[in-house]
Inverse folding.
């Protein structure tokens, strides 16, 4: 069993785009120069099959998601580059002993590039853990729990299982992410194992503890901070939307991961 302690974290972050998260009810408000859809919500009943305790109690609405948002002046450019920006808010609270989290999935293989595509996360509010494992097979491969605070960037490589976890039950989690416009999720392998290879649970003082999922062969979990991702031209201290705005080519690797094939080999998130 592994234990994670909470750290003091910044409570606010400017993502470089005028989007405001609303908590009750969960929603997003877009500024005058920003386009975006009505939010979609995921309910607890939608994700029970991938939880350690499928009968647990928790927030009825687990998270709200708005895919394809951006500054109005960039709408055509985003379509041309096949890039999509999304924003998500997770509810405060718990799912039984577990933190509020996503089910865990792999990005589908895109018909456009014939690759599973990566994702670039940026935390706006709360405490996040981006959990990743190399495969959804019986042997999950390398497993990482990447702890992130507001302003931190975490990159999920192609083909990896990943789940987003809200590490502090007292604070909602909000984040933005760059995705491929042809995004889609594959859940089969994770659901076949009744979840990810390591279950996060709350222990004493709301500390995250990790319990191995016995449906997988034994593995090691590495708990760490995000990498700097210099080989992917991520500049520390700049919001990922601002990086795109200053140089739209920066995130071309998201819908075209083959451009960074050498980076994904032995990638450390």
């Amino acid at each position: 069993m592994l234990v994670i302690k909470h750290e003091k974290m910044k409570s606010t972050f400017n993502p470089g785009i005028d989007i405001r998260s609303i908590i009750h009810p969960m929603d997003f408000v877009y500024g005058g120069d920003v386009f975006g859809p009505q939010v979609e919500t995921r309910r607890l009943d939608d994700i029970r099959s991938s939880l350690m305790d499928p009968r647990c109690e928790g927030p009825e609405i687990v998270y709200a998601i708005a895919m394809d948002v951006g500054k109005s002046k960039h709408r055509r450019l985003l379509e041309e580059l096949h890039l999509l920006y999304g924003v998500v808010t997770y509810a405060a609270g718990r799912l039984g002993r577990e933190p509020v989290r996503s089910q865990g999935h792999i990005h589908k293989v895109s018909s456009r590039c014939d690759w599973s595509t990566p994702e670039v996360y940026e935390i706006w509010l709360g405490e996040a853990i981006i959990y990743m494992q190399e495969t959804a097979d019986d042997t999950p491969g390398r497993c990482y729990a990447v702890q992130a605070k507001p302003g931190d960037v975490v990159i999920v490589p192609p083909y990896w299982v990943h789940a987003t976890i809200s590490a502090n039950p007292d604070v909602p989690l909000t984040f933005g992410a760059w995705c491929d416009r042809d995004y889609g999720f594959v859940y089969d392998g994770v659901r076949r194992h009744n979840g990810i290879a390591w279950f996060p649970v709350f222990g004493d003082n709301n500390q995250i503890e990790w319990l191995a999922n016995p449906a997988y062969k034994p593995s090691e979990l590495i708990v760490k901070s995000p990498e700097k991702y210099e080989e992917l031209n991520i500049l520390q201290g700049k919001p990922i939307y601002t990086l795109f705005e200053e140089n739209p080519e920066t995130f071309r690797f998201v819908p075209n991961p083959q451009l960074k094939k050498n980076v994904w080999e032995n990638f450390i998130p």
